[in-house]
Amino acid sequence: MPVTAVLILAAGTFAIRFAGPLLRDRVTLPDRVRELMSASATVLLLALVAVSALTNGKQFGGWALAIGVAVGGIAAWRKLPFVAVIVLAAVTTAGLRFIGVA
Asked: Which residue ranges does UniProt annotate as crossing the membrane (predicted)?
């Protein structure tokens, strides 16, 4: 039974992905709908990042983690190299936890 369900879901996923390029020229969306779809994708991604970066399991991960994520976000916004962003965020979080900030 589980193998059948996986195969059905795989076939459905493939069909949806295959239909996208085929229907691109046939279906036109109004500009407002395109703007809303773009904005909703950005909001969804931001919500996913916030939940995964600021929680530890089912609860708030603490202020040290939140500040570390903010420092990493600022570093990324300033277009620092990816390694520098990760190191700055980790060092900030570890330093704050070391001095007792939960």
From this structure: 35-53, 60-77, 83-100
pTM: 0.60
- State how far Cα 53 lies from the chain centre: 9
Is residue 72 classed exposed, middle or buried when 0-12, 13-18 and 19+ CB atoms within 10 A define those classes?
buried
Tokens coding 46: 């931001």
β-strand partners of 55: 60
Cross-strand partners of 69? none
Measure CA 63 to chain center.
Answer: 20
Sign of CA dihedral 10, 12, 15, 20: negative
- Collect the ranges in the chain with pLDDT lower than 70: none
